[in-house]
Automatic annotation (TrEMBL):
Classification via InterPro entries: RNA_pol_sigma-70-like, RNA_pol_sigma-70_dom, RNA_pol_sigma70_r2, RNA_pol_sigma70_r4_t2, RNA_pol_sigma_r2, RNA_pol_sigma_r3/r4-like, WH-like_DNA-bd_sf
Alphabetical UniProt keywords: Sigma factor, Transcription, Transcription regulation
RNA polymerase sigma factor 70 region 4 type domain mapped to chain residues: 119-170
UniProt keyword Chaperone, yes or no: no
Record's protein name: RNA polymerase subunit sigma-24
Sequence ranges assigned to domain RNA polymerase sigma-70 region in this UniProt record: 19-87
Species of provenance: Ktedonobacter robiniae
Top-level lineage group: Bacteria
Pfam families tied to this protein: Sigma70_r2, Sigma70_r4_2
Family of the protein in this entry: Belongs to the sigma-70 factor family. ECF subfamily.
């Protein structure tokens, strides 16, 4: 008689499967509420660490696990916003002037960067619609080729080729200026 395998939080394959199943939606939720990818990723890690620390998590059914993870994610967002309200700031008059990178934040540098970003946006708008979307997904949203391929329903290789062509085209436009 065979024993039925019960999942365990020590089982790496089980943890990976749970993470892969729920992390994309949870990350999107966290990012939508925090507007910072780094903070959203940190809270996502906290959600799954809480699952590791919860005794009996692996014995919950799939629906209960999902509901529990969503509840923890919502609570983490609430805690994050509470902490933001309580953070104490310090007046700039008490910060030594040498703490600033003077050249980095001068009005001229800010203006030049803004102009460069505007020029880049204009050049991107001249690309075909699909290439515009690929460039946005890759560089603005930081997605990888495999993730982009899923979104645009193309092969990963095709996405890489189209991205490469778009970047070469943009590079050529800049060289000609």
């Amino acid at each position: 008689m065979r024993k039925e395998h019960t999942p365990s939080l020590n089982d790496k394959a089980y943890l990976t499967a749970v993470y892969r199943q729920y992390s994309p939606a949870l990350l999107a939720y966290l990012y939508r509420h925090l507007r910072s990818l780094e903070d959203a990723e940190d809270l996502l890690l906290d959600v799954f660490l809480a699952a590791l620390e919860r005794s009996g998590f692996e014995s919950l059914g799939a629906k209960e696990q999902e509901a529990w993870l969503w509840c923890v994610a919502r609570n983490k967002v609430t805690d994050y916003h509470r902490k933001l309200k309580r953070r104490q700031g310090i007046s700039l008059e008490f910060v030594p002037e040498e703490e600033y990178e003077q050249d980095y934040v001068t009005p001229e540098v800010v203006l030049l960067r803004k102009e460069e970003a505007t020029r880049l946006q204009e050049h991107i708008k001249r690309l075909p619609a699909l290439q515009q979307e690929l460039v946005r997904l890759r560089f603005a949203h930081g997605l990888r080729s495999a993730e982009i391929a899923t979104i645009v329903q193309k092969s990963e290789g095709a996405v890489r080729v189209m991205l490469s062509r778009a970047v070469k085209l943009l590079r050529k436009v800049y060289e000609n200026e």
